[in-house]
TrEMBL record:
GO terms for cellular component: cytoplasm. Signal peptide: none annotated. Its EC number is 2.7.1.23. This is NAD kinase. Involved in the regulation of the intracellular balance of NAD and NADP, and is a key enzyme in the biosynthesis of NADP. Catalyzes specifically the phosphorylation on 2'-hydroxyl of the adenosine moiety of NAD to yield NADP. It is an enzyme of class 2 (transferase). Its main location: cytoplasm. It comes from uncultured delta proteobacterium. The gene is ppnK. Pfam families: NAD_kinase, NAD_kinase_C. Keywords: ATP-binding, Cytoplasm, Kinase, NAD, NADP, Nucleotide-binding, Transferase. Its cofactor is a divalent metal cation.
Length: 285
């Protein structure tokens, strides 16, 4: 299998805290000693010059938790630049490298390169009165839900132009395989293998259980219209960006097969990772 060589690295840190910056500085110095060019900076969600700051990096290494990883990945969406995570968070399911073993992992990376793996993103647009008011790409998920009082929202779901269902629930999650281990899993949705071209549609506490979680092909085009529910309904992208919705708004989304480029140093099984992260456990008698 072909490996992607690494000779130029961009280190993107979660924040400017002493712990994170000490680790970032140590890595920067270590890479320099190995003859690898390295630039380090703190991630800023709002920065418009993110791509420019990466320079000619062969790979982007993220120092942070899954949230930081997803935020950086969204900035890299639909670009060929690979991303790799060093876990400084709680779960760290998306991270490839543990903070106490980074030297060994990066030594293997320099010696043998990295394996590249494509991941799906969700391309979305939000229509209001027939006009697009928000559009972009999601790495993990799109969530339509109420942010205020505990009242049901009423959503109309259309799949490839065919009306599928009118749903009353706390909300609805559309998730990529990458995002299926997040909010979707908490809502009893399916875990999707990262190698499949598909995404999941999962209701959040549906009234009368009239809608079960679904897995649809990546090319499927889904529309979610806000039928009713009053104020306080939001579209949230990757748990990080949100916009309040109005009655009549329609969210349109479909999969983008090669949305994200993940870098893998080792060949750990996806299923072994599920087990080690606690998503699958033995039955306890």
């Amino acid at each position: 299998m072909n490996r992607h060589p690494v000779r130029n690295v961009a280190l993107v840190a979660r924040d400017a805290s002493p712990l994170v910056q000490t680790l970032s500085h140590a890595m920067e110095q270590w890479f320099g000693g190995q003859g690898v060019t390295c630039a380090a900076f703190v991630f800023d969600h709002a920065a418009s010059d993110f791509q420019a700051r990466l320079g000619n990096a062969d790979i982007v290494i993220v120092l942070g938790g899954d949230g930081t990883f997803v935020g950086v990945a969204r900035k890299l969406a639909v670009t060929p630049r690979p991303i790799l995570g060093v876990n400084l968070g709680r779960v760290g399911f998306l991270a490839e490298v543990a903070p106490d073993s980074w030297k060994g992992a990066f030594s293997r990376m320099i010696d043998s390169g990295v394996r590249l793996e494509s991941g799906m993103a969700l391309q979305y647009s939000l229509l209001r009165n027939g006009k697009t008011v928000w559009e972009g790409l999601a790495v993990n998920d799109l969530v339509v839900s109420r942010g205020g009082p505990a009242r049901l929202v009423s959503l109309a779901l259309t799949v490839d132009g065919i009306r599928l269902a009118r749903l009353r629930a706390d909300g609805l999650i559309v998730a990529t395989p990458t995002g299926s281990t997040g909010y979707t899993s908490s809502a009893r949705g399916p875990l999707l293998h990262p190698g499949i071209n598909a995404y999941a549609v999962t209701p959040i506490s549906p009234f009368m259980s009239n809608f079960s979680p679904m897995v649809v092909a990546g090319e499927t085009r889904i529309s979610i219209a806000v039928d009713a529910g009053g104020p306080g309904i939001y579209l949230t992208v990757d748990g990080q960006e949100s916009l309040e919705l109005q009655q009549g708004d329609t969210l349109k989304t479909t999969g983008h097969k090669d949305g994200i480029c993940f870098a893998r140093i080792d060949d750990e099984s996806y299923f072994a990772k599920l087990r080690s992260a606690g998503f699958v456990r033995d039955f306890a008698e």
